[in-house]
């Protein structure tokens, strides 16, 4: 290690801390003489000699690094000198002189290590002369520790030598550390071995300690407990042994079955072919799905446009007719608006009247008597509109037939597709169930079923699902009819048909209800109700308690009926003088609007048993009967017309609503209606219309307002009418 004090170049001093090493006796003596030469005061000649020697050696540090022996000599001489000083001995003059003579004799005999081998002779001579001259020098002369200015080559050489010395010192340090670590490890190992070999001292028996008493019963009890525990362990081992033996037997059986099944190649070939077939089928359906969606959307747009056209025309005619009658009843001959608008309004009303006349003639020719003006849907289209609609529909159907015209029947015929999976189910039922094919088939068959239903309109020309080709194919594939009722739950394909209906049919019906269905149309409502009843009652949708598709359909039905009640129901109120004449425009218009609302009430109540009862009662009774119809009935004078209207309203009510009523009171929503019937009965009885009074009492009995009817009979003493209540 070096310790450097950085000063200007001419004052630089370098110190070297030498390591302690053992030296030979000869080297020690030479080091003492060398150290004495360095410590003695010298003359100017000696100083020059030393400087000359330093030039030959290139540097003081190089000298110390290349000659380890000189380091050892300096160290040993220092140790000797410190020893003498520590003892308190002061050398005498004779000792000093003797030491000088010894050093001189050693130099004359060249008994020292020269700094440079090649110049050893010259160095020896110079050293001898310098020592002789230095003896005469004064002791007060200071030593020169500042080295002479060195050249660039000398400094480079010094730097290279110092790096080599440092590397050698690092290697020695690493070796020393490794030796110390080995010594420590060896020492710890020896300590561990000594501790492990040391045996614990045996406890000595103390006879003074008393042992618990031992008798035959205690020994017998302990032996019995020991035997019991061993028996328990033995039984556990026995059960484990039996289980292992069973596993071995089952493994042997499995190995034998696998060895017997030599048709592994055939099975692999079948699975490979089935995989390729399913992949091709999926790719084909994915390719055609875009065209199926386009065609299906085109058909729905045609039907939606037709329905919106009929609805808009009906609302426009209602507004025009109401405005026209209002102006006529107010005493004005013509509406305030004139010109072309008057002509258009007149033409619109004339067209509406012609349609009514045509429908009346048709009813008379068919013998339909129980009909009133306003109960028709008024959804007839003009011949031009019918021709245009049919042409567009034929074009869409033609496009639908071209979708699979370039596809092989194995990939577009539902029956042939199911035959492939039927073969799989018969050959390998276990893998068929493990692949969950019954869950995949509804989604796989969805595009093909939708193509067959392109021309299907559930609101017109009702057709049973059982008559459709896809339904029969799936029913034959699942084979539910051939399975007994208790085993249907475990049948692997028993859920295919319900899932197809839930994932494909119900969403399609929901679209028709949202965009096409007219709640005022009795024919459309009956077809829709019959279809939904058939699906919900005959076809079990799924084993799951909750069907999202069914909930969506019912929510849409309720939404459309609520919208129809708010937008399509309009019953104007006119003065009695205006409606007393049954042939007047006001009376006819009011009657048409009343019977149109009764028709809507009848259509809404058709959903009883399919939709929730609370919802149907709220729409039909609370919002339609009590808000619109009852107001017209209250303004109608008691008589045959009023009784006919009330009879028609009661005929619309489902009978099952009144089966569980035992308290003698009717439904809460019908209380106002029953009060109106009671008021009519009183008026008719006062006017001596016994037959009409009896009819009103029958209506009260039908709605289970028995308490109201009994009070009326007791009030007027009509004992002969009590038989009506008893029936």
Automatic annotation (TrEMBL):
BP term (GO), one: mRNA splicing, via spliceosome
Residue stretches of biased makeup (Basic and acidic residues): 321-335, 360-375
Location(s) in or outside the cell: Nucleus
Biased composition (Low complexity): 60-77
All residue ranges annotated as the GCF C-terminal domain in the record: 415-628
GO cellular component: nucleus
InterPro entries: GCFC2-like, GCFC_dom
Coiled-coil residues: 220-261
UniProt entry keywords in alphabetical sequence: Coiled coil, Nucleus
Sequence intervals crossing the membrane: none
Molecular functions (GO terms): DNA binding
Biased composition regions of type Polar residues, renumbered to the chain: 117-128
Chain segments carrying region Disordered: 21-86, 116-139, 321-341, 360-383
Classification via PANTHER family: GC-RICH SEQUENCE DNA-BINDING FACTOR, INTRON LARGE COMPLEX COMPONENT GCFC2
Family indicated by similarity: Belongs to the GCF family.
Protein's name in the database: GCF C-terminal domain-containing protein
Organism the protein comes from: Hypotaenidia okinawae
Source taxonomy: Eukaryota, Metazoa, Chordata, Craniata, Vertebrata
């Amino acid at each position: 290690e070096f310790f450097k004090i950085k000063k200007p170049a001419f004052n630089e001093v370098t110190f070297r801390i030498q390591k302690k090493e053992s030296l030979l006796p000869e080297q020690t003596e030479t080091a003492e003489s060398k150290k004495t030469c360095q410590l003695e005061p010298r003359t100017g000649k000696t100083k020059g000699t030393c400087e000359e020697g330093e030039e030959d050696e290139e540097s003081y540090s190089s000298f110390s690094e290349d000659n380890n022996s000189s380091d050892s000599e300096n160290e040993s001489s220092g140790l000797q000198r410190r020893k003498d000083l520590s003892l308190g001995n002061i050398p005498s003059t004779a000792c000093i002189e003797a030491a000088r003579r010894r050093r001189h004799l050693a130099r004359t005999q060249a008994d020292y290590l020269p700094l440079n081998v090649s110049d050893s002779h010259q160095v020896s001579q110079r050293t001898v002369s310098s020592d002789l001259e230095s003896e005469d020098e004064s002791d007060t002369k200071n030593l020169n520790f500042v080295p002479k200015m060195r050249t660039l080559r000398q400094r480079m050489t010094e730097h290279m030598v110092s790096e080599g010395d440092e590397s050698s010192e690092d290697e020695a340090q690493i070796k020393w550390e490794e030796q110390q670590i080995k010594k420590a490890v060896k020492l710890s190992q020896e300590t561990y071995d000594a501790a492990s070999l040391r045996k614990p001292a045996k406890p000595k028996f103390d006879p003074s300690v008393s042992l618990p008493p031992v008798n035959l019963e205690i020994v017998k009890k302990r032996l019995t407990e020991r035997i019991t525990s061993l028996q328990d362990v033995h039984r556990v081992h026995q059960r484990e042994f039996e289980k292992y033996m069973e596993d071995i037997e089952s493994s042997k059986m499995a190995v034998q079955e696998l060895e017997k099944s030599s048709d592994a190649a055939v099975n692999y070939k079948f699975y490979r072919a089935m995989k390729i077939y399913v992949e091709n089928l999926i790719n084909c359906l994915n390719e055609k799905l875009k065209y199926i969606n386009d065609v299906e959307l085109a058909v729905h747009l045609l039907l939606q446009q037709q329905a919106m056209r009929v609805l808009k025309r009906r609302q426009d005619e209602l507004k025009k007719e109401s405005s026209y009658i209002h102006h006529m009843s107010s005493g004005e001959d013509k509406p305030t608006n004139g010109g072309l608008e008057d002509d258009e309004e007149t033409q619109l009303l004339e067209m509406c009247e012609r349609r009514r006349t045509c429908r009346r003639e048709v009813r008379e020719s068919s013998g339909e008597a129980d009909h009133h003006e306003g109960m028709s849907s008024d959804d007839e289209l003009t011949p031009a509109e019918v021709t245009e609609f049919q042409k567009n529909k034929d074009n869409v159907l033609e496009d639908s037939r071209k979708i699979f015209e370039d596809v092989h029947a194995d990939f577009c015929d539902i029956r042939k597709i199911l035959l492939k999976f039927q073969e799989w189910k018969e050959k390998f039922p276990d893998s068929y169930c493990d692949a969950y094919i019954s869950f995949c088939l509804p989604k796989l068959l969805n595009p093909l079923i939708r193509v067959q239903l392109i021309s299907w309109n559930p609101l017109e020309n009702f057709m049973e699902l059982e008559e459709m080709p896809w339904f029969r194919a799936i029913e034959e594939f699942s084979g539910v009819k051939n399975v007994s009722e208790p085993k249907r739950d475990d049948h692997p394909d028993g859920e295919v048909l319900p899932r197809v209906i839930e994932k494909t049919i119900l969403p399609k019906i929901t679209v028709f209800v949202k965009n096409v269905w007219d709640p005022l149309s009795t024919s459309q409502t009956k077809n829709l109700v019959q279809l939904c009843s058939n699906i919900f009652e005959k076809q079990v949708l799924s084993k799951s308690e909750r069907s999202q598709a069914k909930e969506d359909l019912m929510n849409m039905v309720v939404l459309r009926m609520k919208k129809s009640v708010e937008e399509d129901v309009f019953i104007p109120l006119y003065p009695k003088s205006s409606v007393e004449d049954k042939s007047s425009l006001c009376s006819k218009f009011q009657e048409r609007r009343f019977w149109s609302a009764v028709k809507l009430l009848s259509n809404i109540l058709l959903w009883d048993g399919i939709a929730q009862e609370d919802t149907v009662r709220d729409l039909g009774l609370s919002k339609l009967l009590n808000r619109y119809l009852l107001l017209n009935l209250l303004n109608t004078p008691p008589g045959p017309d009023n009784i006919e209207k009330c009879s028609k309203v009661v005929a619309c009510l489902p009978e099952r609503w009144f089966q569980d009523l035992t308290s003698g009171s009717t439904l809460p929503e019908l209380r106002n209606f029953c009060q109106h019937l009671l008021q009519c009965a009183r008026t008719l009885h006062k006017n001596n219309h016994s037959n009409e009074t009896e009819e009103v009492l029958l209506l009260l009995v039908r709605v289970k307002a028995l308490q109201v009817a009994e009070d009326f009979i007791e009030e007027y003493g009509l004992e002969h009418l009590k038989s009506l209540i008893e029936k």
